């Protein structure tokens, strides 16, 4: 697949957002936020970023602009937050200063509970719903996988929050004894892709174990099965859980065996790659170095195409204001890439 390099020299970039003036805002996992100029020049790291636990899969991870950014300059970002020798995924809000040099009024609005000593499975993708509420994906922290089936913790969950971090009205477990009110759905493993579809519904993908990466449309109060059911297996082989199905647990809309290690996701709303590609899902593969294009019809995945980006781990995929797709590559010398307008297979 032909790509164009927009910027180079990023250290394990994780998320990209598009500023209204044509600049880019990018997170780097070690704990930095940078502005990238339209010509690819990297700005100095912004001030005002809180301390992050940068190790393993942890660090400074996703970032999105508020839907009213042009007026309030608010951004939301999630990261691995330290605490007493342990850590958790946390969500913060901040204001990007007028001169783009720092984050102001930085405030942690939500912290995953409980904190544990782990450098794995933070989840940490953010999507803002049309009503202004925020969806945040939370990993199971790996060795706490059984927590994903319990409602008294935030491990292996999707939560839905107001902009101040409080539980959003209409969440399914508000008022239920022994359940945390922020929870939207549960039974997830390590979701690293979240985006709103053209109909406003949340699409989610998550890492399976050895095989069994999934695409889901998480609905309020539903149980997505991890670790009781999975289409994957233990690392090194061997059955995990009860099998692939159980009453009361949702089946994925699409899954991969072997795993592709998905990260980042966009729904294409433009026709820059052919009219038939409009509405399709595009997500990165960390394992195989390609972008997966999933054709969606009636809320179901009907076909998959692989757009090769040889030698690259694809960490994030976003659609820019120009209708083009942008990719971040996960590397000590990571790059921001643009996929130029070109007809894709089956999208003429």
Please provide a written account of the structure.
By secondary structure, the chain is mostly beta strands. Helix content is 1%, strand content 41%. It has 1 helix and 23 strands. It has a 4-stranded antiparallel β-sheet, with no helix packed on it. A hairpin with a 3-residue loop joins strand 3 and strand 4 (32-36). The relative contact order is 0.13.
SSE topology string: EEEEEHEEEEEEEEEEEEEEEEEE
Strand arrangement, major sheet: 1-23-22-21
Helix content: under 10%
Strand-pairing-aware structural class: mainly beta
Any idea what the radius of gyration is? Answer: 19 Å
Let me know the largest β-sheet: 4 strands, antiparallel
Structure summary, number of beta strands: 23
Count of separate DSSP helical elements: 1
Task: State which percent range the strand residues make up.
Answer: 35-45%
| pLDDT < 50 stretches | none
**Distance between the first and last residues' Cα:** 16 Å
TL;DR of this structure?
The chain is mainly β and 348 residues long. The chain has one helix at 69-72, and strands spanning 4-10, 13-18, 24-28, 32-36, 60-65, 74-83, 86-96, 103-111, 123-128, 134-138, 157-161, 183-186, 191-196, 202-206, 213-216, 254-256, 262-267, 281-285, 290-297, 300-308, 314-319, 325-329, 334-339.
């Amino acid at each position: 697949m032909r790509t164009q390099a927009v910027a180079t020299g990023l250290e394990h970039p994780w998320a990209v957002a598009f500023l209204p003036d044509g600049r880019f805002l990018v997170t780097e996992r070690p704990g930095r936020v940078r502005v990238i100029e339209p010509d690819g020049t990297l700005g100095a790291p912004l001030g005002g970023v809180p301390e992050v636990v940068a190790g393993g899969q942890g660090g400074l991870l996703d970032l999105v602009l508020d839907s009213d950014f042009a007026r309030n300059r608010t951004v939301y970002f999630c990261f691995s937050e330290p605490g007493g020798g342990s850590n958790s995924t946390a969500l913060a809000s901040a204001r990007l200063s007028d001169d783009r040099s720092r984050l102001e009024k930085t405030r942690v609005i939500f912290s995953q509970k409980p904190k544990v000593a782990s450098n794995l499975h933070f989840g940490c993708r953010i999507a803002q719903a049309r009503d202004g509420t925020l969806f945040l994906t939370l990993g199971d922290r790996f060795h706490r996988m059984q927590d994903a089936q319990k409602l008294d913790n935030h491990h292996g969950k999707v939560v839905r929050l107001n902009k101040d971090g409080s539980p959003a009205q209409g969440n399914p477990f508000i008022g239920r004894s022994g359940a945390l009110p922020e929870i939207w759905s549960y039974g997830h493993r390590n979701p690293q892709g979240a985006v709103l579809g053209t109909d406003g519904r949340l699409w989610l993908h998550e890492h399976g174990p050895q095989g069994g990466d999934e695409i889901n449309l998480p609905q309020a109060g539903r149980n997505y099965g991890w670790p009781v059911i999975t289409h994957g297996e233990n690392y090194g082989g061997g059955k995990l859980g009860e099998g692939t199905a159980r009453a009361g647990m949702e089946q994925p809309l699409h899954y991969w065996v072997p795993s592709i290690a998905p990260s980042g996701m966009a729904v294409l709303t433009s026709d820059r790659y052919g009219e038939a590609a409009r509405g399709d899902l595009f997500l990165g593969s960390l394992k195989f170095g390609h972008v997966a294009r999933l054709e969606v019809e009636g809320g179901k995945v009907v076909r998959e195409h692989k757009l090769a980006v040889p030698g690259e781990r694809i960490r994030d995929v976003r659609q820019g204001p120009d209708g083009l797709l942008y990719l971040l590559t996960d590397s000590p010398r990571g790059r921001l890439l643009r996929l130029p307008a070109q007809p894709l297979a089956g999208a003429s």
